[in-house]
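Box 3.1. Reading complex inputs
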Amino acid sequence: MNAVTPDQLLGQLRWRYAVKKFDADQRIPAPTWAALEESLVLSSSSYGLQPWKFFVVETPATRERLVPHSWGQRQVAEASHLVVFALKADVGAADAERLALRTAEVRGVPVAATDGYRKMVANALASKPRPEVDVWMTHQVYIALGHFLTAAAMLGVDTCPMEGFVSAEYDEILGLPALGYRSVVLAAAGYRAADDRSAGQPKVRFPHAEVVQPL
Ligand SMILES: Cc1cc2nc3c(=O)[nH]c(=O)nc-3n(C[C@H](O)[C@H](O)[C@H](O)COP(=O)(O)O)c2cc1C
């Protein structure tokens, strides 16, 4: 195990902040970006369902086109990378089956051995009304966002999590409905600009004792 120290962890978490202005000339090196993509793959989710896809928007013209649909926030165009965290449409029995098949493949067990789990997951999804399932699955997408922000901070990569965009307009521009997905939240990733005024701002957090309480 190669655990970081508490000081290293807290150092990176205090270093990170939501970047308002990225250095448009600085790219994340390929091996670092590959690790960040893999951190998305490794994110945890309820029942392990992974009801998501992470669209990495690469075309500069497309990213520029997204700016007016992002409250004019230029991080979308100027950061090294832009990830659109998307939720799979209509998560249900077919997804429980996909997970069961993958489990059998990865763990080298017969598909029949995963049947009980598949049924349990399918029942859990079927027992809730569709809007409730959508909210539940949306929570999973946010877990991936948090995972990504922390992973990036550990690698010294800056990020900005972003809800300030119009999901339906993103979906149309990126063609997500045809792929069976809907945008939920964004993360821009790269390196802070030397003149990003937010960089020097002290972090605003409520005191530890107000946030963490022993019972
Ligand atoms: C889900 C989410 C959505 C956010 N949306 C935006 C956004 O659209 N634009 C922006 O500049 N910051 C956005 N932020 C950044 C928050 O304002 C910021 O994380 C918060 O003020 C705490 O500051 P810090 O992250 O710099 O420590 C968002 C943060 C989260 C977690």
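In summary: DSSP finds ten helices and four strands in the chain.
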